Amino acid sequence: MSLFALDPRLERDSTLLMKLGLCQLRLMRDSRWPWLLLVPQRPGIAEIFDLTPLDQTMLTFETSITAKALKQATGCHKINVGALGNQVSQFHFHVIAREQGDPAWPGPVWGYGEATPWTDSARTILTERLLEAI
């Protein structure tokens, strides 16, 4: 039986905030958008249909509570969710707070410009708001 291991690129590009029932909740290291990842802690998962039906239900629940908490924590205009996996095949779900007039609005955030690191204080404030909302 293989063990869950986080893809090195996801590890490099994000910070662990907490572990939920199924997923790791991670914050992307790009302050242009409050951008979270949900990564199911299951080995060998590349697609949503690779998850068991129960895990799919848990993912839906964890996505919903994460998206609601992100909206509450940021007051954003729109929450975007999605799974692409073109560059990292390990299944992960993006939950992104979008604001009219943000750097990529209304287009997608993927591949837009260069990442801007979080300041320690901004990351701490967002993290505290998120964890309180969850």
From TrEMBL:
UniProt name for this protein: HIT family protein
Domain HIT: 36-105
TM region positions: none
Pfam (any one): HIT
Domain of life the protein comes from: Bacteria
InterPro entries: HIT-like (IPR011146), HIT-like_sf (IPR036265), HIT_Hint (IPR026026)
Native species: Hoeflea algicola
Coiled-coil regions, chain positions: none
